[in-house]
């Protein structure tokens, strides 16, 4: 389970940040990738909302970790952030596995990527 949470915080979040910044072209990401599974509109909307919250947790962790007094405090902050990120995903109505599957699919499917970017922009607090 620790691996899944680490994957969320370490592998997916940079991708989410890229989605928010639209810094990477979806076409550059999706070269000769296999077809991605179909997700409902509700799942994609839930993913976008959860991704915003997971990014908030990650940003908060980065600030707190930079101010931490020692490695033990950083480890404790990471555990807390992992729990908060997992809870944010589950509060959105998705499982961690569904969230991960959508994130992975978005890296392979330019239209899904674009849809998520649009939804995240709409849902982000201005």
Could you describe the 3D structure shown?
The longest helix has 27 residues, at 41-67. The chain is mostly helical and 126 residues long. The chain starts with a helix and ends with a helix. The chain is 79% helix and 0% strand. It has one domain (2-24, 40-123).
Q: Mean pLDDT, nearest integer?
A: 79
What spatial form do the alpha-carbon principal axes imply? elongated
Helical content class: over 70%
Contiguous helical run count: 6
Structural class of the secondary elements? Answer: mainly alpha
Quick one: biggest sheet?
none
- Strand proportion: under 5%
Topology (elements, then pairings):
Blueprint lengths: L1 H20 L4 H4 L11 H27 L3 H21 L4 H13 L1 H14 L3
Helix pairs in contact: 1-3, 1-4, 1-5, 3-4, 3-5, 3-6, 5-6
Quick synopsis:
79% of the residues lie in helices and 0% in strands. The protein has helices at residues 2-21, 26-29, 41-67, 71-91, 96-108, 110-123.
Top keywords for this entry?
79% helix, 126 residues, 6 helices, mainly alpha
């Amino acid at each position: 389970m620790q691996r899944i949470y680490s994957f969320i915080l370490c592998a997916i979040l940079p991708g989410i940040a890229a989605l928010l910044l639209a810094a990477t072209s979806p076409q550059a990401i999706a070269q000769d990738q296999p077809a991605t599974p179909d997700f409902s509109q509700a799942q994609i909307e839930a993913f976008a909302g959860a991704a915003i919250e997971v990014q908030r947790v990650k940003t908060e962790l980065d600030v707190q970790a930079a101010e931490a007094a020692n490695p033990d405090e950083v480890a404790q902050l990471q555990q807390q952030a992992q729990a908060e990120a997992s809870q944010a995903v589950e509060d959105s109505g998705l499982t961690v596995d569904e969230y991960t599957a959508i994130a992975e699919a978005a890296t392979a499917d330019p239209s899904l990527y674009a849809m998520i970017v649009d939804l995240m922009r709409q849902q982000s607090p201005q």
